[in-house]
Design goal:
Helix content is 32%, strand content 19%. The protein has six helices and ten strands. It has a five-stranded mixed beta sheet, sandwiched between helices. Strands 3-4-5 form a three-stranded antiparallel beta sheet, with no helix packed on it. The chain has a two-stranded parallel ribbon with strand order 1-10. The radius of gyration is 17 Å and the shape is globular.
Amino acid sequence: MSIQVHHTISLGCRCHTSYALKYMGLKKYSCPFDWLACDIYGVLEILKSDFTEFLKPEHLHDHKDGHTTSCGHKIYGNTFFHHFNPRVKEHMDYYIRCVNRFKAVKDLYSHEHVLYIHNALYIKPTEDVIYQLHHQLQRYRGSDNFTLLFIYYSDSNASKTSFQVSSFVGHPSNVMLVDASIRQPTDGVVFTHSDDIQGFCEFMFANFDFSEINPNPFNMSDIDEESSYISGICLQ
């Protein structure tokens, strides 16, 4: 039976989670992890600290590659803000709105089911990290009315695309772990092989029911802003 979903929220680790949701028409508003370069341990630290260090000006520095449209972070990495630069006021305001939305889902939509998605490109999940992330999401939701979808890409040069739910002894019932194989490595922004994005879409629609997704829970202006702010990728 498919899981009814009303909200989708990306938890990284890079941009292709949010891009894939946008490709499928399932990204209805912006949240803080949409366009970051942030592994699961960074996500955990940010949630544990309740975003207190996330946007502090003293932590922001030049991006590793020197792009003025990007920004590094002293705690979370020198490619952290890979498509936005919160040292620019408009981008800082954007991220403040994203954080506020992430927190507000609990108060405004406690009765609606949230699907949190983390695509792990480099780090295989451990039992401990899954429990920690689940615990932090429980805190933000105030309940178990959510699903954590954790996809680990074990093979990025496979002969065929595959997304298979894997067993994880003792994990909470609202956690879905997936072992994925894709034909070409993702570039961190998009799936680079058509079979891979197709396989991702087929997996999502086979396991989740998006027919009642909340169409406009927040101001959607950021969706248009992202098209202007983010350079180098197509968000049509």
